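Final report, Chapter 2: Outcomes

The project's central promise was a pipeline that accepts a single protein chain and returns its three-dimensional structure in a standardized token representation, suitable for archiving and comparison. That pipeline is now operational. To close this chapter, we reproduce one record exactly as it appears in the project archive, with the input sequence first and the structure output second.
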Amino acid sequence: MKIGHRKSIDIDMFCSVNFDGPLLAQHLINQYNAEIKRVKSNYVSGNIGVVAFHFICHNYPEIKPIEQIEGIRMMSVDDISAMKINAIVNSGQRVKDFIDIYYLLKIMSLKEILDNYCLKYPDVNTSMAKSSLSYHADIDLNVPVMLMDKTLKWKNIADCILLSVKNLH
């Protein structure tokens, strides 16, 4: 992720227009010898060598323009924060999403993150987002995450997020 707190295990590539998943999958196989794991309209996932990838159509407005960092196009932190909340609301099982929120809270408030969530996804309910951030029973804590800070513990992450939610009220 762009704030540098962990090593990513995959590359997520988002676009805001529909695409032909099977056609893209065939291109990736032919050009890059990709191993395709899942294909459907507007979605392809797999591996090229040891690098896992996901191509995803995400038809939601950008909060801020795409940034170019060292020749790589990246979404803004505002967009990433909104998408992380969306991932937690829709799944709530991936520890990396909560870790990412913990680090985002170091550079922006939970109010700003939730405001971004509402900007990107206009029909959402922030009460559901706050509940999802506070519910940790479904998180798989056994999935390894390559954190730069090896001393960080789950309790610190959970406490920080819960306190941020509590302080919103």
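Archive annotation: The chain is about 40% helix and 20% strand.
This record, like all others produced under the grant, will remain available to the consortium after the project formally closes.
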